[in-house]
Amino acid sequence: NTGDSSLIMNSELFLSKRFLGFRRFVFSPEIRVRNENYLNDNNPAVFQNDGYTIAPALRGAYEFNWNKKISSLLYEYEYTYTARDKNAVGKKDFFGATETYILGLRYRFIPQGETTIKIKLRELKSFSELISGSTRSLYLDQMYIRSNGHVIIGMMQADLYRPNEEFYATDSLFLRGDYLIPRLVWNMDLNLNISLNLLDTKAQSETRGVEKTFSFGAKMLKRIKQHWRVGVFGDFMRNMSKDDANYSFSKLYMGAEVRYSF
Question: How much is the pTM?
Fold first, then answer.
């Protein structure tokens, strides 16, 4: 918590391609490149968060029939490399890298939408050996398509983070809800979201307690022809900790984006 504020400039490139394989196999290689710069260059505690992320992934699915419904067995691999100006010297260097292995199932338990369940194993290599370690996660999301075409998505993820140094271990529960309104006006889509994250700091609980992060946001995307989308978004985040001076903070994100899909 720096007690300061800053404008943030984010840029992101995302490329993905879907391939149909042999006998109902589907493969989707992708890559995401993201750069983040804090425009407040007067406070090192702020601009040391400048950084970039390179995240390739391979997502696959095997489609099969279950109870006369098409289902998908999911298998995914994600790699994420992150660099930051962690020493506040104007140079972005290695901050951390993760490998994530995912198995899951997608099935339509209710006629209004699909359910996705995933088990994740994430291995973290950090610039600090103390916080390098592994995270085991359970993920669940449910889609519900209303009769008017609006879409409700509920998501839950539970994480057990176990680093090399037990003092930094945490358990967390993340809950999120999205409400999507396609073509609300002028061929624009509206996405409203709200989320809550509960972080059990375990060995640090006497000083930090169970930290709560609340956020809500909105995004408006306009369709331009078949492949292009342009939009604006805003997100507000508030983290509340027992150690208010060091871990409580608020963030407001506002921006615009241009998206091309092929």
Answer: 0.87
